[in-house]
Write a structure and sequence with these properties.
This protein is of the alpha+beta class and 1070 residues long. The protein has 13 helices and 65 strands. Helix 4 (75-97) packs across helix 7 (155-165).
Length: 1070
């Protein structure tokens, strides 16, 4: 190993003395034996039992072998309880026998000396292994304590004490070492162990027994008792890559709350392409399955469609943002059919544009336009096919940067919301004799570009250069860009005339050469590109309404949901489809000149909120229009495919208000289709005569719930021609021969949902969260996970059906931070930022109990409450956890206090409080027997809390209380934990320091970790070696807030926090 010398002026390589020292230390550790605390090898010999590196045959007499060897198989299962009882008895006797003038432990030491003298007098000292070691056998140990008054010392307790302190190969324990263990505190004894810094480097380095300190463990951690026996094999497995891997199955989420432009596009294969977090998603509405492009490491900000209908570009943000060009089709030779292949990548190597907020392909597909979010909103034009090898490809000299870059607008970021090429006009280079210089050709001088119209005749010998015009639009501006004779791009703003300037959220070119845009007040506007001026404003009584919210001077951070957000030109239909904040999808017919639209729409579809008329309609922000095969669509509706993935939301209100009928035409296909069962879908319906499968979650409701509404599948065998939309009412003014009967519209809303809208159906296909997603928890028996986030909604998602099956607003405006199922699957606990702790019924999401800062004032309640009404200060609840038997609920957070509530038939009472942390507590773990609770704060400090069953009630029943209000300082090296949410500890010390969340599978063979860069990694458990083998999967765009295995270890769920996505992974290779 060599490294560069640090001496000034030297640039030579010298040996790395640190590596040599580490290697020498490794060799020394292989050679020497481990010594227990306070053990002297020269005086006491080599330790045996759990301290021996290589097990040897036990010497000593028959009684000694019987006590120390015979019950060795189940020693660890009984040692903890027996050791605790033995220490308690001996310490009480030691205190009672101590004289006033004697030191602590002197009476015990005198008793051991007396036994040794008696052995020498009897001649037993001449036996092998007993000469001059100041040690005692198990029989002599029991004799000493009989004399001191402890007459109920069992063999199991003696074996536990000998195993803890240490004994030699003859089964004899040094009593001097034992007396030190007896009189010293546990923390001081552990402090005398050998200390190692950092996780193990390899299997040889793992031959260590003692205390280990790591950067993420305050106070260090101890190796298990049997580590010297099993540690080598565990370390070897820890360094290997796990057998299992993760395959991304479904992404719940849609960029409705953050996207600036249109975020969803339809492909020529009748699939949808959009982005969620750092993923590019290809969604097939027929099968309700997704494929993914995972080439980004940060959140995607914009997407653009190639003219070929299968290629797409996505741009991300952060330092050195990139725009990736990838194919939505399955490429031959691809290892996985669920992943999309990257075709090219362009990167801003200087990193000053912050992110790419708008993308557009040229009409011929050769160039990619990107707009940055820097202060000047720089526009880059790339020949993306030359970037197939990445920015570091040295073989291609044109691969160092864009073709051209220029500023577009100097304004507050972001001011440019979209970019669009004109597909109906192309300009070609004019090569004529005696032509004026190119520099004198001005693209806007006469209304035509310096490159003439493409309609002129071009000879075969000519290879003219082609150019297109494009527009950039956004906050109170729209600008037209053309290329001049010198190859420079020149932009001119379009004039609004006498009209007040307005912001533009969507635009599309019409065949007649005009530009149709959507304004923020719900109106449409037509600009003439030749005159660069506003032609007219289209305001109609039947047009879009001025709804939604916009940021203001008083509230500049308010989300902008106003305006017409989507414009899609349908060339085959000679129409334009628009959608906006009023939740309406309108179809506008083009005039004969094809440069304008009619004053009124000829068709419309109005959406209503899934929770009823009392809520604002869905704010549409994205739109994709797809031709629909009606025969195929009705066949799919009649078969009731389980993968249909219908999403529903719950709200306590009358059922009649939740279900508004939409008239549909029943075809022969639906009449003859096999009836579906509601038990095959996430939630059953009352009208379904089929019996629910007993293993399905959740069970069939006793009555019709507002969120369990009937749909086409459930009523397929009733002959009823009136069906109920799954999530909303779709009111249409069109007949069966209308435009919306020939196309299907997929609308993305500000609620981060993706809707499917036709003339007879409106339903949510992909349901997401409107804010950040903070925590996730799996049901212990079913493939259902619960999430909570900043919007305060608790959502249940089924992994098998890939659908959101229920949701309820529980936070009342507060931000949800944690969620946890009870081990029996009956309850669901959620903690919020305002200090509110809520317990729900896990199946119905009905409120069971809650505590709030103002609960004392609410004396009358329609539901059971808490015996201790509230937490005194309004601090956030960042972690909740149920005990293994679901009889206790622990909660903690910003006030650094751990509270434990007893569950008494749904009424929760505070039974214990613990204080000791110096920072916000972020994780809780219960031991398998439920007697020990572990808490971890953000400063990586681990504290333990011991619970005991004490009598004292008048009715004779036992009561569980915390043994102390201060942390328990006993040894926890052999404790079995039911969960492992803490990111520090011996079993996970080899995990990277950048990990933010951890979970261990129920079989304790693997662990999954989410890091700060958006990666989800699978490792072998325990993970005790640095550079441990892992399989990392990049999917989230930022810090992974939470990650968890399902109860059967078949699924993994991860939430990305800021990206607002829930990713469900399928475990493969198990």
């Amino acid at each position: 190993h060599f490294t560069m010398s640090r001496r000034a002026g030297l640039g030579v390589l010298e040996p790395d003395m640190g590596a040599a020292a580490r290697e020498n230390e490794r060799r020394e550790r292989r050679r020497r034996e481990y010594r227990p605390p306070m053990w002297d090898t020269d005086a006491h010999g080599k330790p045996a039992g759990r301290f021996a590196r290589v097990p040897e045959a036990m010497g000593g007499d028959t009684e000694t072998r019987r006590v120390l060897v015979s019950s060795n198989a189940n020693a660890r299962s009984v040692s903890d309880s027996h050791l605790t009882d033995a220490w308690r008895k001996m310490r009480v006797a030691c205190a009672m026998k101590r004289a006033h003038h004697q030191q602590e432990g002197a009476a015990v030491l005198d008793a051991f000396v007396a036994v040794e003298r008696a052995r020498e007098t009897s001649g037993e000292a001449k036996k092998p292994g007993t000469m001059g070691k100041c040690s005692v056998t198990p029989a002599e140990f029991k004799k000493v304590w009989w004399a001191l008054g402890v007459r109920d010392m069992t063999d199991a307790e003696v074996k536990a004490v000998f195993g803890k302190v240490g004994f030699d190969n003859h089964g004899q324990m040094p009593y001097e070492v034992f007396v030190k263990w007896l009189i010293l505190k546990q923390s001081r004894v552990l402090g005398k162990e050998e200390v190692k810094k950092g996780p193990f480097a390899d299997a040889d380095d793992a031959r260590f027994f003692g205390k280990i300190t790591t950067p993420r463990s305050v106070g260090g951690t101890q190796t298990p008792s049997d580590w010297l026996e099993k540690g080598g094999a565990i370390a070897v497995r820890s360094m290997q890559a796990p057998r299992i891997s993760l395959e991304l199955n479904h992404a719940h989420g849609f960029p409705g709350a953050k996207d600036l432009g249109n975020s969803v596009h339809a492909t020529k294969r009748k699939t949808l392409v959009y982005f969620a977090g750092a993923l590019g998603v290809v969604y097939d509405p027929k099968t309700h399955k997704q494929r993914f492009f995972r080439g980004h490491a940060r959140d995607i900000r914009a997407i653009a469609a190639h003219p070929d209908g299968v290629t797409f570009a996505t741009g991300d943000g952060g330092a050195n943002p990139s725009a990736c060009v990838w194919s939505s089709e399955v490429q031959p030779g691809c290892a996985s059919t669920s992943q999309c292949v990257e075709l090219a990548r362009v990167t801003d190597r200087l990193g000053y544009v912050r992110s790419f907020v708008a993308l557009a392909f040229s009409p011929n597909g050769e160039h990619l336009l990107t707009v940055g979010s820097d202060d000047k909103h720089t526009v880059f034009l790339w020949d993306w096919r030359k970037h197939t090898g990445g920015t570091n490809n040295v073989k291609n000299t044109n691969n160092n940067g864009p073709l051209v870059s220029f500023p577009s607008a100097q304004a507050a970021v972001p001011a440019v919301w979209g970019a669009l090429f004109n597909p109906f006009r192309v300009f070609v280079e004019q090569k004529r004799k005696n032509a004026p210089k190119k520099s004198s050709q001005k693209p806007f001088a006469s209304g035509l570009a310096a490159f003439g119209d493409a309609g002129r005749a071009i000879s075969q010998k000519e290879k003219p250069e082609r150019s297109f015009e494009f527009v950039t639009y956004g906050a109170k501006h729209v600008k037209l860009w053309r290329k001049d004779g010198d190859g420079r791009w020149v932009g001119r703003p379009l004039c609004f005339g006498k009209q007040k300037t307005f912001s533009i959220h969507a635009a599309c070119f019409l065949p007649g050469g005009t530009l149709l845009v959507g304004a923020d007040d719900g109106s449409l506007a037509v600009f003439c590109s030749e005159k660069r001026a506003l032609k007219r404003i289209v305001r109609s009584a039947h047009g879009h309404r001025n709804q939604g919210n916009a940021p203001s001077v008083q509230n500049p951070q308010k989300e902008n949901t106003k305006g017409v957000r989507c414009l899609v030109f349908l060339e085959t239909e000679n129409a334009v489809v628009s959608a906006g904040a009023d939740g309406r999808v309108l179809a506008w017919r083009l005039r004969d000149t094809k440069d304008d639209i009619h004053d009124d729409p000829f068709e419309e579809i109005s959406l209503t909120h899934p929770l009823g008329d009392g809520h604002a309609p869905p704010r549409i922000r994205s739109l994709a229009v797809m031709p629909e095969d009606r025969t195929e669509a009705t066949t799919r509706k009649g078969t009731g495919n389980e993968n249909d993935g219908v999403s529903r939301r719950s709200e306590t209100r009358p059922v009649s208000d939740a279900c508004l009928p939409v008239q549909t035409v029943q075809t022969e296909t639906t009449k003859n289709a096999a009836p579906s069962r509601a038990a095959d879908r996430p939630w059953g319906v009352e009208s379904d005569p089929a019996v629910s499968h007993p293993g399905r979650f959740p069970m069939k409701p006793l009555g019709v719930a507002p969120w369990a509404v009937a749909d086409c599948d459930a009523l397929g065998d009733t002959g009823n021609t009136s069906v109920v939309p799954n999530s909303s009412d779709a009111k249409t003014s069109s007949d069966s021969s209308s435009l919306f009967s020939r196309v299907a519209c997929f609308a993305g809303t500000a609620g981060c949902d993706l809707w499917e809208v036709t003339s007879s159906l409106a339903r949510v296909r992909i349901a997401g969260a409107t804010g950040t997603v903070e925590s996730v928890s799996w049901h212990p028996k079913f493939s259902v996970c619960a999430t909570v986030g900043s919007d305060g909604w608790v959502r249940l998602c089924d992994a098998e059906t890939r659908a959101q099956i229920a949701a309820k607003d529980v936070g009342d405006g507060a931000r949800g931070l944690c969620v946890a199922f009870s081990p029996d699957g009956q309850l669901l606990a959620t903690g919020f930022e305002n200090g509110r702790l809520v317990v729900l019924n896990a199946r119905t999401l009905v409120l069971v109990a809650e505590t709030t800062p103002v609960a004392r004032e609410r004396s009358t309640r329609p539901f059971p409450g808490w015996s201790e009404a509230c937490i005194k200060n309004q601090n956030r609840i960042s972690a909740v956890s149920f005990s293994p038997d679901a009889s206790y609920l622990a909660a903690t957070g910003g006030d650094r206090t751990v509270r434990v509530y007893a569950n008494v038939h749904g009424a929760f009472a505070l039974v214990a409080k613990g204080k000791g942390h110096s920072a916000t507590v972020r994780a809780l773990d219960w031991s398998e027997d439920g007697t020990l609770l572990r808490s971890q704060c953000v400063g990586n400090e681990l504290l333990h809390w011991l619970f005991r069953e004490d009598g004292g009630r008048d009715d004779g029943r036992k009561e569980t209380r915390c043994s102390k209000k201060t942390p328990w300082v006993g040894e926890t090296r052999d404790v079995k934990w039911r969960t492992h949410c803490s990111t520090t500890g011996f079993p996970v010390m080899g995990v990277s320091s950048h990990v933010h969340s951890i979970d261990v599978s129920s079989d304790r063979k693997h662990l999954v970790a989410g890091d700060a860069s958006g990666g989800v990694s699978v490792l072998n458990h325990p993970c005790v070696c640095e550079n441990a083998g892992e399989k990392k999967h990049q999917a989230h765009g930022g810090r992974v807030k939470d990650v968890q295995f399902s109860g059967d270890n078949a699924w993994v769920a991860s939430v990305g926090g800021g990206d607002g996505t829930l990713l469900v992974w399928k475990v493969v290779g198990a």
